[in-house]
Amino acid sequence: MSERRDPIAPAGGDVANAPVLEVRNLGVTYGSGSDAVVAIRELSFSIAPGEFVCIVGPSGCGKTTLLKSIAGLLRPTRGDAYVAGKRVDGPPKDLALVFQEYTRSLLPWLTVGDNVTFPLAARKVPKSEQLARRKAALAQVGLPGFDDKYPWQLSGGMQQRVAIARALAYEPAVLLMDEPFASLDAQSRADLEDLVLKVQRDTGLTVVFVTHDIDESVYEADRVIVLTQRPTAIRQILAVDLPKPRDQITTKALPEFVRLRTEVLKLIKNEPTVD
Amino acid sequence: MTRLRGIAIGLVVPIVFFSIWWVLSERSTSPYFPPLRRTLTAFVDIWFFARFFTDLLPSVGHFLSGLTLGLAAGVVVGTLMGLFPRFNRDVAPMTEFVRAIPTAALVPLGLILFGTGFVMETFLISLAVFFPILVSTTAGVRGVDPVYLEVARSYGLSFSDRLWRVIIPAAAPQILAGCRVAIAFGLAATVIANMVASGSGLGFFIVDAQTSFRLPDMWAGLIMIGLLGYLANTAFVVVEHRLLGWHRGWRGATRAASAA
Ligand SMILES: Nc1ncnc2c1ncn2[C@@H]1O[C@H](COP(=O)(O)OP(=O)(O)O)[C@@H](O)[C@H]1O
Ligand SMILES: [Mg+2]
Q1: What's the CATH number where B195 sits?
Q2: Is the confidence at residue A275, as pLDDT, over 70?
Q3: Deepest in the core among A62, A146, B163, B238, taking most CB within 10 A?
Q4: Which residues of chain B carry a pLDDT beneath 50?
């Protein structure tokens, strides 16, 4: 198995530390015959428990496609994904996905509280535990007491917080996030970036965070996976050794931060890099 | 508070309408347009006493049973058609064909199949109710936002959980819009079924009153039908208000967002 690993092993990845998420030779082709679109040519990487990995790539390169394959919503054409050692064949129990379209990913007929608990209700989690988890999750995302509001009464940033609370209440081992803050204003975006970092630090959750924002990827990540244009493959994987906890002002002023973001930018623009 | 005011405002128009009718008809000597006073006397005599059990109750009963049956069947078949495009493709040509036939034209068929009476009228009414609810349920189920379904699937909801927790609630606004049309169609079918094919009921009563020249009775019949339609619709609005409170708020919010 180890010889299939990527050149750069997961941060803190000793041999004993089995990956919680692994993608092996995964490829996705939409359609067939002359209409076939090769969205993902081939991807292989693995992620250790507790890692925060950002995936960056140009728009339309197949980032959503990749996440959907990992989340079991889409059967890859080639290769497989493994979550907690089990081959993905339908939505894994240990995984939650925060969607790009936050206004449409919350159910408008349910209150905030019920939006957080409906996956638990469907899983027959006892009522008292549902309530406890929902209370904790809403507090974690900074929305305590918002249970009885409806999602459409909230701002975009708050709606995405509810979607994150729903994912946290599900208590997954892996949290996938698909450009979660792409359509938010700068302030909400910065707040939510810090929120996700804090939640990750507090819970030790493994986070796979897709974005097309280079600063965001370097700011959040332990490692950044840079993808190529379609048909997509891995351009390069970069380790980010910026000190933690990170801070919007001081971290982004560090020479190392500037160096990394320039490098990611060059990789995406397909220019030769220094190293 | 605002609900009560809404109801009060809703009552103003009918009161004004009936007052004007009362005043204008008071001195009427035309046999066709009797004074409203006489019509209302007839109304009370007929619908509270003489014809309550023989005509009013059976009509209301047939209407309600046909409505229930037609709505249930329409929601079930419509959901199946919305869920399974292949089933939809196979069945839609037939439903489109039958839907195009006016209810009145189906009366002879109903008579042959079921004779006169409860079964035949229920059949006719439920058929009239079936198609509007079928069409709107199919559209509602097919139009469920695919993101809702992906969210539900990503959290491992079973098919039946997805159906009851996501698809039906998401389609509810359209299903209820179909209900509203179905209620009107059902009432029309009730009257038609009575008129053409039975010796009792509201529709029969109006025709009978007209042919035997009891015109205040005919007017009393018309007012009763109007009243039933009004009551059915009011009951519907109350239910809709309870079920779809979220929908008004959500629509308002999405409109505001897209306008901004
Ligand atoms: N259901 C689909 N059928 C056909 N092509 C698709 C489908 N979904 C996505 N694609 C195509 O696959 C490519 C990758 O899409 P996507 O994964 O959404 O990219 P990203 O999330 O990186 O912007 C795009 O070119 C898109 O047009
Ligand atoms: Mg995308």
Answers
A1: 1.10.3720.10
A2: no
A3: A62
A4: none
What ipTM does this complex have?
A: 0.89
Average pLDDT, chain A: 91
Per residue in B81-105, pLDDT (tens digit) is 999 999 999 999 998 888 889 888 8
At A3 the pLDDT is 41
**What does the domain layout of chain A look like in residue ranges?**
49-73+89-269
- For A15, counting Cβ atoms within 10 Å of its Cβ (0-12 exposed, 13-18 middle, 19+ buried), the class is exposed
Question: How remote is the CA of residue A165 from the centroid of ligand 2, in Å?
Answer: 21
B148 contacts in A (CB within 8 Å)? 104-105, 107
Question: By CB neighbour count within 10 A (0-12 exposed, 13-18 middle, 19+ buried), where does A93 fall?
Answer: middle
Tell me, yes or no, whether B209 lies in a domain. yes
Predicted model pTM: 0.87
User: A102-122 b/e with 16+ CB inside 10 Å = b?
Assistant: bbbbbbbbbbbbbbbbbbbeb
- The A residues from 221 to 240 touching B (CB cutoff 8 Å) are none
Q: What is the CA radius of gyration of chain B?
A: 22
Q: Which of A108, A109, A170 sits opposite B155 (nearest CB)?
A: A170
pLDDT at residue B240, rounded to an integer? 92
Those residues with Cβ within 8 angstroms of residue B229's Cβ, 6 or more apart along the chain or in another chain: B183, B184, B187
**pLDDT(A56) > 60:** yes
Q: Does some domain include residue B124?
A: yes
- The candidate with the shortest Cα–Cα distance to B138, out of B188, B189, B99, B82, is B82
CA distances from A77 to A40, B80, B133, B244 (A): 9, 30, 40, 42
Of A49-53, A123-127, A128-132, B55-59, where does mean pLDDT reach its minimum?
A: B55-59
| pLDDT the model gives residue A271 | 64
pLDDT attached to residue A7 = 43
Query: How many whole angstroms from its chain centre is CA B62?
Result: 13
According to DSSP H, which parts of B26-56 are helical? 36-43
Stretch A57-65: mean pLDDT, rounded? Answer: 91
How far apart (Å, rounded) are the C-alpha atoms in residues B126 and A69? 46
Ligand 1: residues with CB < 6 A are: A 30-31, 37, 39, 57, 59-65, 230
Question: What was the pLDDT predicted at A5?
Answer: 41
DSSP B100: T
Residue A107 in contact with partner chain B when CB distance is under 8 A: yes
The candidate with the shortest Cα–Cα distance to A44, out of A12, A68, A70, A18, is A70
**Residue nearest atom 9 of ligand 1, based on CA coordinates:** A65
Instruction: Report if residue B162 sits inside a domain.
Output: yes
Interface mutation target, options A95, A109, A160, chain B, most CBs of B under 10 Å: A109
